[in-house]
Amino acid sequence: MGTGKRGLIATAVAVVCAVTVLAAPGTAFANPTPSPTPSAGPALAPAKDLEAVRKKLDTLYRAAGRATDEYNAAEEKADKQSTEVVELAKKIVKGQEKLRKLKDRAGAAAAAQYRGGGLPPEAHLVLSDDPQDFLDGAGRVREGHHATKGLLGELTRTQEDLEQYAKDASAQLKKLEAGRKAKAAAQKKIEKQIAQAEKLESALQQEEQERLAELEKEAANKAQTAWLDSGILDEINGKASAQGKKAVKYATAQIGKPYQWGAEGPRTYDCSGLTSQAWISAGRGIPRTSQEQWKQLRHVDVQDMRPGDLIIYFGDASHVAMYIGDGAIVHAPRPGRTVTIAGAGSMPILGVVRPDSGTGAN
Q1: Which tens digit of pLDDT belongs to each residue from 308-348?
Q2: What residues have CB less than 8 Å from 360, skipping those under 6 apart?
Q3: Dmax of the chain from CA atoms?
Q4: CA 330-361-339 angle, 5° bins
């Protein structure tokens, strides 16, 4: 285990211990007042400690989000490589069949020569007494030479093609295996981060968990208010394209469905699973992961965005949501949450991308 991982675990444990100690009953610390009665219940953690927990949970879930992108990317590559291996296998089968037929033709030519007494066509030509037969035979010999040369050339090319197909298939299988390992490693990262987050939350009392949820909302509302106060919404008046409307309709119809990493619906989604499926439903295929959506789709200025556009969040492009208008987004937030509507400025915006090129609707 690396020092970074040890530090992360140590910090999580320290926060859990702090919350547990603060929540333990009977911690008087030289308090001259009488000890509370058993019915008073354990003391709740101070707000500053819950805020520390909130930030820690945010860090853990964001790390899980990055690992989810790695997992999705590995899965997408594996699907593509599997398809390529299948296509190469088909080419190999066709090539083997072609090679068999060519060898049969070559064998037939050899058999014909054997039936002719084992003499090559040139010898039969020289032995001919008829001038016309000689001329006709000369033409057939030339044609035979061309045919034989062509047959041998085709045999050689087919064998070379088969060898190349086999090499390509071997290379793709190696990539497929590497992708499988990358996918497994990403899955371990996800499960580890989520397990740490769940452990941290489970150490809190019910009232503390409720207060933690309130702190999350307060932080999101504060960020959204600051974003709106900048006056940005006054500049955003783009109208959705026909495809954009379909994408928004699909995405908003998923509200209330649980988040699940690696999921693309129809029952559960992760953030990019929701946005990619929404646009597929609108007739436009887009990259599967938020990072590739950021890399490959057309960038537009925030003030020019319109419903259906995708907002990419955080410096590492680890989260994506769909803009639905009026300063709001629909997104799949994180494990333990459901697809929901939130403020477009509730998280740090990296930029906006547009999947389609259609003009805005009237």
Answers
A1: 999 999 999 999 999 999 999 999 999 989 999 999 999 99
A2: 238, 239, 240, 241, 306
A3: 136
A4: 10
d(CA 136, CA 128): 11
- Residue 158: name the closest of 99, 237, 114 by CA: 99
Establish how many alpha carbons lie within 13 A of residue 91's alpha carbon, considering only the half-sphere containing its beta carbon. Answer: 18
* Count of all residues that appear for the chain in the document: 362
pTM: 0.65
The answer to whether residues 337 and 274 touch, using CB atoms and an 8 Å cutoff, is no
For the stretch 61-115, pLDDT in tens is 989 998 998 899 888 888 888 888 888 888 888 878 877 777 777 666 666 655 5
Q: What is the pLDDT of residue 152?
A: 76
Phi, psi at 313, each rounded to 5°: -115, 155
Tokens at 336, concatenated: 């333990």
β-sheet bridge partners, residue 329: 323, 342
Query: Could you give the residue ranges of the DSSP H alpha helices within 127-270?
Result: 131-202, 206-229, 232-235, 242-253
Distance CA 328, CA 142 (A): 79
Q: Catalytic residue numbers?
A: 271, 319, 331
CA distance 340 to 95: 53
Helix (H) or strand (E) holding 315: none
Amino acid in the structure at residue 199: K
Q: Which residues contact 263 (CB under 8 A, 6 or more apart)?
A: 269, 270, 273
Q: What are phi and psi of 44, to 5 degrees?
A: -85, 155
CA-CA distance, 328 to 311, in Å (whole number)?
Answer: 11
* Predicted confidence (pLDDT) per residue in 100-132, tens digit: 777 777 666 666 655 555 555 555 555 555 665
Q: Which of 244, 212, 228 shows the shortest CA–CA distance to 308?
A: 244
